[in-house]
Amino acid sequence: MAERPASAEGRKGSGSGASGQEWYRDGLRFECTMCGNCCTGPEGVVWFSREEGRAMAAELGVAESDFYRDFARTVDNRWSLRERELEDGRRDCILLDRASVPGKVVCGVYRARPTQCRTWPFWAENLASRRAWEAAKRRTPCPGMDQGALVPIERIRIQRDSTPE
Ligand code: SF4
Prior knowledge:
Elements: E1 28-30, H1 50-60, H2 64-71, E2 72-75, E3 78-81, E4 83-85, E5 91-93, E6 96-97, E7 106-107, H3 115-118, H4 124-127, H5 130-139, E8 145-151, H6 153-162
Antiparallel strand pairs: 1-8, 2-3, 4-5, 6-7
Helix pairs in contact: 1-2
Residues 32-38, 120, 140, 142-144 line the site of iron/sulfur cluster.
């Protein structure tokens, strides 16, 4: 998967300058184009809680034990979604669906997706500076960043502060 939250060290700060104001105080534009780039790429992790695991199992219509067997793995003693390796070496999130919607790449549990996925791209590490934001946009690449509707600072802060580390 292309993106993963950085270590706690990498997530320090909220992108506030000396004035104490975030550089994105006027909000940021974001609109997902459903390209799937944030759910594929090099090896990564998608953390989820037990509650989120229950919700994803219910969304898939499988028993919780089957969900953990087929879709989950542990990394550093935490639960993460599994990955599926593509022929070109990229790794898709196991729940990424490239077949159901022509021309789109969608999440197989969209309504029950974990917080880490809901809060992209408003992660603290991406918001640490304008440069970090631009780097994440380029690296992913995420064509939805800086496009579409303006997301106000209040909503960005909520998403930033709820992303698991
Ligand atoms: S990379 Fe950006 S535009 Fe593409 S699916 Fe992810 S959030 Fe949406």
